[in-house]
Amino acid sequence: MTPNQTAAADPAAKFDPSRAGEYEKQSRIALAGYDACHELSACMLAATLGAGRAAEVLVVGAGGTAQEIVCAARLEPAWRFTAVDPSAPMLDLAMARVAQAGLAERTHAVPGVVEDLPATPRFDAATLIGVLHHLPGDEAKRDILRAIAARLKPGAPLILAGNYRAYASEPLLLAAWGERWRMQGASADEVQAKLGKILQGADPPHSEAAVQALLAEAGFAAPQRFFGSLFWGAWLARKQGS
Q1: How many domains would you assign to the chain?
Q2: For residues 8 and 14, is the Cβ–Cβ distance under 8 A?
Q3: CATH number, position 148
Q4: What Cα–Cα distance (Å) separates residue 148 from each residue in 44, 159, 241?
Q5: Nearest 5°: phi and psi at 103?
Q6: What range defines the domain where residue 24 resides?
Q7: In this structure, is residue 177 part of a structural domain?
Q8: Do the domain assignments include residue 198?
Q9: Measured CA distances, 73 to 32, 47, 60, 211, 241 (Å)
Q10: SS3 for 196?
Q11: What is the percent of the chain where pLDDT is above 90?
């Protein structure tokens, strides 16, 4: 099996130790507004849950910078976090960032997938940031959203953020993405290589309507988009039920 075939079969496989090491720098280049998105995600959760209240937050795909944990913990000192990621190198990197921020006692790491978590106790909120477009096909996307919904309290908020729209369908945005890399010092050949890797290695929902449909099918209601940057979007939705 080639590396590309391995990554297609297991999306976590492409986040090996070499990619984990460069992730923090590369993610901030790939997403203009990386820090703003994470800060606003924390603000949206706090505004929904109520400032100053204790909460248990599920962070799915937590590996890498742990920025969602660091931002939210800084805003809300009574929140605790369960960090889940199937890539051991990426989760190790995230927990190192958590420890550096003095948040180790407030964060529980779970190597694996959402389905590895017990069905109870249920969480007050969840985040799924930068994950969905790495999962091939709608069924895998629905599966992870359903697994998250099953572990949330009724009415609990979910922050969903990631790329949406088929990359090739938006040539101007794709070209601007390439210019973003060039702005950071990449050569023309390096830009083409990066864009080619993006086109082959991800499967984002093809529209905002597709995102909304996936959320509805998984049991989430009233998604509200609060951030956008080229192909990237971020939404807050609530688990249905009472």
Answers
A1: 1
A2: no
A3: 3.40.50.150
A4: 18, 11, 14
A5: -115, 10
A6: 3-165+204-239
A7: no
A8: no
A9: 23, 14, 16, 27, 27
A10: helix
A11: 79
Mean pLDDT of 140-144: 97
- Closest to 203 (Cα-Cα) out of 232, 176, 164, 231: 164
Q: What is the pLDDT of residues 18-46, one digit of tens each?
A: 555 567 788 889 899 999 999 999 999 99
Q: What is the pTM of this model?
A: 0.90
pLDDT value at 53 more than 70: yes
Structure tokens at 28: 């901030």
Judge contact between 229 and 162, C-beta under 8 A: no
Interstrand relation of 107-111 and 125-129 (parallel, antiparallel or unpaired): unpaired
- Write out the two tokens for 223: 């998604």
Of 47, 46, 49, 27, the closest CA to residue 161 belongs to 27
Report the C-alpha gap between 40 and 51 in whole angstroms: 14
pLDDT of 228 higher than 60: yes
User: How large is the average pLDDT for residues 120-144?
Assistant: 95
233 falls within a domain:
yes
In DSSP terms, 111 is beta-bridged to 85
Does the residue 188 lie in any domain? no
